[in-house]
Design a protein that fits this description.
Elements: E1 4-7, E2 10-13, E3 18-24, E4 33-39, E5 46-51, E6 58-60, E7 68-73, E8 78-83, E9 92-99, E10 109-112, E11 116-121
Parallel strand pairs: 2-11
Antiparallel strand pairs: 1-3, 3-8, 4-5, 4-9, 5-6, 7-8, 9-10, 9-11
Amino acid sequence: QVQLVESGGGLVQAGGSLRLSCAASGRTFSSYFMGWFRQAPGQEREFVAVISRSGIYSNYGDFVEGRFTISRDNAKNTVYLQMNGLKPEDTALYYCAAGVEFHTSPQKYDYWGQGTQVTVSS
């Protein structure tokens, strides 16, 4: 069982930056692939980024275009999402998730946080 708690969301102007954090409970954090997803009202949950268990490999949604960076600190049981160059269309509830596959589909993830809201004003 893994419990995930996101933080770091907020209101930011277009072009600004935010750093999201996701703290995991338990001693098995390093055995999970970690992903970030987002969901805007009326939209399906969308893949943002995934990172391998060691942190060496990562993958991003096409819309990221080099603006976001996912990272993890296994000693602190935490995964991060650094978001730069934010756009109004990035406004959404951002979730972190833990799974046993390096995958972009939310169905492949077993544990989810409650989400943190990111709002980007124009």
